[in-house]
Amino acid sequence: MASEEHLSAIKGAKVLMVGAGGIGCELLKTLALSGFEDIHIIDMDTIEVSNLNRQFLFRQKHVGQSKAKVARDAVLRFRPHIKITPYHANVKDPEFNVDFFKQFNVVLNGLDNLDARRHVNRLCLASGVPLVESGTTGFLGQVTVHVKGKTECYECQSKPAPKTYPVCTITSTPTKFVHCIVWAKDLLFAKLFGNKNQENDLNVRSTDASSSSEHSEDVFERRAAEDVEQYGRRIYDHVFGYNIEVALRNEETWKNRNKPRPVYSKDVLPPKPVGQNGNKDKASNTGDPSSVSAMSSLGLKNPQDLWSLRENSEVFLEALRLFFSKREKEIGQLGFDKDDQLAVEFVTSAANIRAASFGIPLHSLFEAKGIAGNIVHAVATTNAIIAGLIVLEAIKVLQNDVKSYRMTYCLEHPSRKMLLMPVEPFEPNKSCYVCSETPLTLEINTHRSKLRDFVDKIVKEKLGMSLPLIMHGVALLYEVGDDLEEDEVANYAANLDKVLSELPSPVTGGTILTVEDLQQELKCSINIKHREEFDEEKEPDGMVLSGWTPALAAEKTKTLDNGPSSSNASQTVPLESEDNDEIEIILKDPEILAAGKKRKSSDVSVAVDPEIFSVTGAMLTKKKVEEDDSNNDIVMVDGKLDLNKKKRVQ
Amino acid sequence: FSKLQNWDSGGIYKQTREYNFSYFDELMHKRKSRIHYSSAKFLQLFCHLRMGTEGEQLTEQETAIYDRQIRVWGVDAQRRLSKSNVFVSGLRGTSVEFCKNIVLAGVGSLTLNDDRLVTEDLLFANFLTPPAENDFRGKSVAELCCDSLKDFNPMVSVSVEKGALSIFDADFFQKFDVVVVNCCSLLTKKSVNAKCRKLPKRVAFYSVECRDSCGEIFVDLQNYSYCKKKNEETIECKLHYPSFEEAIAVPWRSLPKRMSKLYYAMRVIERFEELEGRNPGETSVDDLPNVQKLRKELCEAHSLNESQIPDSLLRRLIASISEFPPVCAIVGGILGQEVIKAISGKGDPLKNFFFFDAMDGKGIIEDISNGKS
Q: Which of A317, A412, B64, B111 is the most exposed place for a label (fewest CB within 10 A)?
């Protein structure tokens, strides 16, 4: 098998790799060893220290350089005669258009985000080039094959939405550490150091508005000539003390909840500001502002240590002081970045103080950083395995061996004795708006929602388009591009601020909009349905997109109720058989396979970061849902997501 | 004193690091007076423990580089990894993949054994970087690998041990926590495994072999206990592994019906090579008739239907002259994962065979041991 037929298919092939990270390094190596001779590789990232434990083509000395280029050079050292073309660029750049994709025999993804995956999926569909998609998290991984018209596309199955939390859980009633992190990062950090014009819910929920609202306008502003230590303590007392007291006045809220405890700086810290300014400044005076750290000026060394409430309070005040004394220029435009040490210190300490106030267990900086930065767990072995599996699928694709295509799951715990579990790919979902031109339906208040809301929340966020064009019949409502005339730009900008029903060509209930992305060559129709009211907590976008149903939703629900059975089937899956490999036992979906005949699906732990590891089948969805149930959390579900999940949530 | 020895062999450094030096001094003193232990051995042990305490915390560099994997297996596991010593003999595609994986993961030391001289062909079979100007004259495969692997992770100590695998005695293996043999004859496999089992401390033994698009891993962790969480509770699991010799002696008819065909096929070929005095992998399609004859004999002896070992599979396994890089990556990845599990004590280790065949894409675990586990 490893021989001639393979080699002939491999030799002439021109392949595109998207991503030169964890999977990418392994993949490029395995492709080169397997005999591939013409490989193009796109990656916009540069090398970081935390890549070195698994991205073995990179060394310490390469930190800061282009991944695609360094990876190419490293592989050419052991395969000098092959052609590797690197692009230090974003795959969403316009140069990588359908024509660019058409030159390849197969596209291999080793990406780390949903957005780019969807983009590549569309370009592959538009250019008719097969796609082998992959993802890993810790010991888990998967490889899938997407060939237009033969197997489902990457977007045929719903992807679990990134988890979001109801606003009031974050602002008033946190029950888990992650809620405190979201509060510290998205509200407090953004309020203090981010863009002042951004909407921020930090103070809006205090019911007793009369007394605080006017105050709160400037409470976060540093007063003229206010000492930074005093300012820090004032912020501290306001958010951890005063705001909690305000919240406690609303008795209704705490009927069935544990009451939080207000925390004031004077109760935790000695009355005088900690430390001597002179010393601290000397300690941190060296080097560039990015190396400023509250931990080092306080002598805290191990990021794995759990800090006491007092230590957290010291870190909080010190980090805030350092921001104002060392990085003042950045204030007002900072966004949270997991690689910004001081930002991580501030968020960790703030989250911990809030957690202490609400009786939630505290966490170390290391853990907090992982949660705040959505850091993906990654090990070299899984990436190596997945890269091997990608190459196997790529070879089948090149040989057009459709019958042998498999999606393969790499599991942490064996399921039916398997650590590597192949499953036959699904057929395209006939109601997929991406590969089947199925119209969508949008419920929206056409008298209140502006075109801008529609563009941001639906076209960009939900449909994942980057260069959209919106038409009502033949009338152009909106368009993005470099080649627009000035008056067109002005016209579209004006349209963005109009409510739908007042557009030059009014959009009302019954209107059919056409939305198109010229780069992705994706076009879909959206039926507009007017709706007056939306539930603020459950439908925070103020609009609901639907019409795109996962093919297996109905079956899945049945399965959950009746338990797995191998009769009436919709998918075929090869399993071990007595004497011959051709017998196929028929199952409904991979969930059953994963679960085994009697086992609970929790035996297969596939609960992972949806961004990175978006399992195509139902395995993940179900696991996710179970988790959510047990935590009593409300998950805001995208309008387009599958019914099964929706039903189970709330 | 036995307790201390347990720590030593079990790799439970977590406990040792909680005591400081003076505590150990005192402890040593007390114990010494009670048990007459040779002072040399004593010193050796003390040094070991001392080293254990020195590595109490990961360095800043380690924390930065291993950040993403510490998030998978925790600091304790990382600490245990960084104190482990691994020996690998036979450097082919799969074992080189394995070496790369554990060097990246950050084991303490890796010792390589493969005296074959580097040739153009051998160089072509892996991803290790040739020396400047392609001057590999007189270099052994192990030396070449050593240079490249050191470069992958400067925090791991990589070295070469010359000599034929079969002549190393049990004492030699005492130095290691893990022994991996790749592409090794049946006889040597059995004897190295037996030597590892003789030692007072546990030396985990792994054998790995890839032919064509198929791979096999064998694991012997002897008696292995570990903790795992089930429904919030921590339960202790105990596993008893048979030696390679014991495992392959299990009568075929007593094995489950759905046993991976690859298991039988590998035994036939292994036996064939032994009878013919061939090196592992020294086969060709021309051997098929004789291999088929042997299959018949073995199947009759074991009362197994010959259809369990299809011709097509045998042909693939003996005809292939080179390894298949994607399969090396997959099997080398699984092996790396297993060794990391065994060293760190995290996760269910596989017991005791793993098979991968690119034809069906399944990676299957088989438990082949006499009686219960």
A: B64
My answer on whether omega of the bond before B223 falls inside 30° of 0, hence cis, is no
Q: Which residue has the tokens 């399965």?
A: A559
Query: Residue A182: which domain range?
Result: 177-359
Find the residue in B nearest to A403 (Cα): B360
Q: How far apart are the first and last CA of chain A?
A: 52
Residue type, B6: N
pLDDT bucket at B132, cuts 50 / 70 / 90? low
Q: How far is B183 from chain A (nearest CA, A)?
A: 18
Closest by CA to A362, choosing from A302, A309, A294, A318, is: A309
At A201-259, the pLDDT tens digits run: 776 444 444 444 444 456 888 888 888 989 999 999 999 999 999 889 888 888 888 89
Residue A231 CA to residue B83 CA, distance in Å, equals 48
Boundary of a domain, candidates A517, A546, A575: A546
β-pairing, B178-182 with B204-211?
parallel
DSSP characters over A108-153: EE--S-HHHHHHHHHHHHHHT--EEEEEEETTEEEEEEE-TTTS--
Counting as low any pLDDT under 50, the low residues of chain A are 1-2, 204-216, 276-286, 550-650
DSSP secondary structure letter of residue B272:
H
Q: Are strands A131-137 and B223-230 parallel, antiparallel or unpaired?
A: unpaired
Phi, psi of A327 (to 5 degrees): -130, 35
Contact criterion met (CB < 8 Å) for A50 and B68: yes
- Tell me how far apart the alpha carbons of residues A48 and A203 are, in angstroms, rounded to a whole number: 37
The CATH code of the domain that includes A503 is: 3.10.290.20
A-facing residues of B in 251-280 (CB < 8 A) are: 257-258
User: Do B46 and B175 share a structural domain?
Assistant: no
B165 and B260 in a single domain? The answer is: no
Determine, yes or no, domain membership for A203.
yes
What would the two tokens of residue B146 be?
């050593």
B231-276 pLDDT per residue, tens? 778 888 899 999 999 999 999 989 998 899 999 999 999 999 999 9
> Which residue segment(s) compose the domain that B277 sits in?
251-319
Could you give the count of Cα atoms lying within 13 Å of A346 in the half-sphere of its Cβ? 33
Query: Looking at chain B from residue 39 to 98, which residues have their Cβ under 8 Å from any Cβ of chain A?
Result: 57, 63-73, 75, 93, 97
State the amino acid at position A591 in one-letter form: E
Residue with tokens 């919240």: A247
Rounded to an integer, what distance in angstroms lies between the CA atom of residue A382 and that of residue A387? 8
Contact A280, A296 (CB under 8 A): no
Total domain count, chain B: 3
Q: pLDDT per residue over A373-418, tens digit each?
A: 877 777 889 999 999 999 999 999 999 999 999 999 999 888 889 9
User: A53 vs B128: CB contact, 8 Å cut-off?
Assistant: no
A168 is catalytic: yes
Report d(CA B77, CA B75) in Å as an integer: 5
Q: How many CB atoms lie within 10 A of CB A570?
A: 14
* Residue B286 maps to a domain: yes
Same domain? For A541 and A557 the reply is no
| Total count of domains within chain A | 3
The answer to whether B151 and B162 have CB atoms below 8 angstroms apart is no
